[in-house]
Design brief:
Elements (H helix, E strand, L loop, with lengths): L2 H16 L5 H7 L8 E6 L13 E9 L5 E4 H4 L3 E4 L7 H7 L7 E6 L20 E11 L6 E6 L13 E10 L4 E4 L7 E4 L7 H7 L7 E6 L20 E11 L6 E6 L13 E10 L4 E4 L7 E4 L7 H6 L8 E6 L20 E11 L6 E6 L13 E10 L4 E4 L7 E4 L7 H7 L7 E6 L19 E11 L8 E3 L7 H5 L9 H13 L3 E3 L5 H12 L28
Antiparallel strand pairs: 1-5, 2-3, 2-4, 2-6, 5-6, 7-11, 8-9, 8-10, 8-12, 11-12, 13-17, 14-15, 14-16, 14-18, 17-18, 19-23, 20-21, 20-22, 20-24, 23-24, 25-26
Length: about 575
């Protein structure tokens, strides 16, 4: 035995000793007598081996081929392309046919092929001498069979899956593409863009068309495609070799069909829903907007401000226009919008890709129509009600004010300070003024005030723009008022000579003290009535100033005049 052979045998002996294997194989390697069969050294075997080479399988492999003295006679690495062939049909030398059987993808083997299983007594001119023993170092890259089908394995699947991919659907997905030995050839992630296409329309390799069927949005799936359902004998450019099995790790981002409409999931509907939104209504709602894979692209909550718009009039994307029809105030619903009813092929900005399905989780805060009146619901009415409030009356009342979603705005109960106003003098918002009319003392009401009768588009302190308001009011005090523009009215006929009656000391002039004494006496004797809800001292000053024409601090008979109401139906006179 030569020295090189002795070194080889020592190495092999150490290896087989470590593996605690019989030395029968080693005898075949180091015994100078001729070999009868291929000697196989499986020196690197993957932990996971889902499939082994069998007769009739198509394989791709790399190898280095040397003679006994170590001289290299051939190498697929030198040619830069793996060898492809069918095992067990006579297309390979018999020794290679036998040596490849039972191999796993990524397994590495040393093969010793005796001459009669190699090139025999003929050899290969200029490369392999006659009767040469051949030594191969082989790594298996791929294995498939003409009877193979597309293999799919679900890696992760969402619990909820309302629909799956069917032919003619349009899908958006991310993928990593590798060869069967793990060599990466392409990835959508590297381009930061999904792959977007129709399924079953011939736009994809046949195996991918088939492998995507039945997937749910957000499902992760491994798809293994044999070469004849992929790029076949030609391969694809420099990245996919001929006859390569392809492995795709796919994440389905979204799915829709060009014939899809919107889908609406009514997640929470208030028990009381007296009215639903229709075209022309103005609506305020909060929303989270996400893609079908759950990635958030926008949220009104992040701005702490509702989205306010008209519905059905084209101010928003068509899918949202449709999806908000029929909502109740306080309702929560999920609206799924296909791209042709959303932002289409172009998407929007940097956060909504082209052809993206949009998912909106909506909470309706309120809606109204510009023609809406105040809604009045009487929750309590006293049995005895001899008089109801009217314009000009001075009233005191308690109220709670909130948004329709229950958000409190103000409550007079917080400080037990009754609110007061004179009805019809524009002292309160128009809707509240309307709601306080025709009330009985002690009556309680719920008022729904649309924004055009409330604080309008600009809102108010604590009141958002275009907000519908809810008032819970209780009328606790009511005084009959005076007509608009009056500070005092006579309840009986005025004295025939008013100045003489007012000039208490008969000196020909009426100073402020006499004026106040006279007026307050008329009120005390129920002959006249002052404007309610105003400080009496200020009222006296204003009334006196109106009559003191020359502002000299006294009223003369020439200055004192009755003010005649321009309203011909008025029967009272006022100073």
């Amino acid at each position: 035995m030569r020295e090189s052979e002795g070194s080889f045998c020592k190495i092999m002996a150490a290896r087989y000793e470590l593996l605690v294997l019989p030395l029968l194989v080693l005898h075949g390697l180091c015994n100078p007598s001729p070999l009868e069969d291929v000697v196989i050294d499986r020196y690197s075997v993957p932990k996971i081996c889902p499939r082994e080479v069998q007769m009739g399988d198509f394989v791709r492999y790399h190898y280095n081929g040397t003679l006994k003295d170590g001289v290299k006679f051939d190498s697929s690495y030198d040619r830069g392309i793996a060898v492809a062939g069918v095992v067990g049909v006579g297309r390979l030398i018999t020794g290679m046919d036998r040596g490849l059987q039972g191999m796993c993808v990524n397994e590495r083997r040393h093969l010793i092929v005796p001459p009669h299983l190699g090139y025999g007594s003929i050899g290969v001119a200029g490369l392999i001498p006659a009767d040469a023993t051949l030594y191969f170092d082989v790594v298996l890259l791929d294995i498939w069979n003409k009877d193979d089908k597309v293999q799919t394995m679900t890696v992760d699947k969402p619990q909820s899956c309302n629909r799956t991919v069917q032919n003619t659907d349009f899908v958006r997905y991310h993928y990593n593409g590798t060869l069967l030995d793990g060599t990466a050839f392409d990835s959508s992630y590297s381009r930061s863009s999904t792959y977007d296409t129709y399924v079953g329309a011939g736009w994809l390799i046949k195996g991918m068309d088939e492998g995507l069927l039945g997937m749910c949005a957000r499902e992760q799936r491994k798809i293994i495609i044999p070469p004849f359902l992929a790029y076949g004998e030609k391969g694809y450019g420099t990245v996919v070799p001929p006859q390569a099995t392809l492995v795709f790790d796919v994440l389905l981002v979204d799915i829709h069909n060009p014939n899809d409409g919107i889908t609406v999931d009514r997640q929470e509907v208030p028990a009381a829903c007296r009215r639903t939104a229709v075209t022309g209504d103005f609506i305020r709602y909060h929303y989270n907007g996400s893609l079908m894979d759950g990635i958030l692209f926008d949220s009104s909550y992040s701005r702490n401000q509702t989205y306010n718009t008209y519905i059905g009039l084209g101010y928003i994307i068509p899918g949202m226009d449709q999806g908000l029809q029929g909502v109740c105030i306080g309702e929560r619903r999920r609206i799924t919008i296909p791209p042709h009813l959303g932002y289409g092929e172009n998407g929007a900005g940097s956060k909504i890709p082209g052809s993206a399905v949009l998912v909106f989780d909506v909470h309706v805060i309120d809606f109204h129509n510009p023609s809406d009146p105040v809604e009045i619901e009487v929750t309590h009415k006293p049995q005895d009600c001899n008089r109801t409030s009217k314009a000009g009356d001075f009233v005191r009342y308690h109220y709670n004010c909130s948004l329709l979603d229950g958000t409190p705005i103000f409550s007079s109960h917080d400080n037990e300070n009754l609110q007061q106003t004179t009805l019809g003098l524009d002292k309160v918002i128009e809707g509240l003024n309307t709601g306080l009319l025709n009330m009985c003392l002690g009556e309680r009401r719920v008022l729904i005030v649309p924004p055009h009768l409330g604080h309008g588009e600009n809102g108010g302190k604590g009141v958002p723009s275009s907000a519908v308001l809810k008032f819970e009011v209780e009328l606790l005090h009511m005084e009959e008022g005076v007509p608009d523009g009056y500070m005092f009215i006579w309840l009986t006929d005025a004295p025939e000579n008013l100045f003489e009656a007012m000039d208490l000391d008969k000196d020909g002039s009426v100073p402020p003290e006499e004026f106040s004494t006279f007026i307050l006496a008329q009120v005390a004797e129920a002959k006249g009535r002052l404007m309610p809800g105003v400080d009496q001292n200020k009222l006296m000053q204003d009334m006196f100033s109106n009559q003191d024409r020359n502002q000299d601090g006294k009223i003369t008979s020439e200055e004192l005049k009755l003010k005649t109401d321009e309203d011909k139906e008025r029967v009272h006179e006022e100073l």
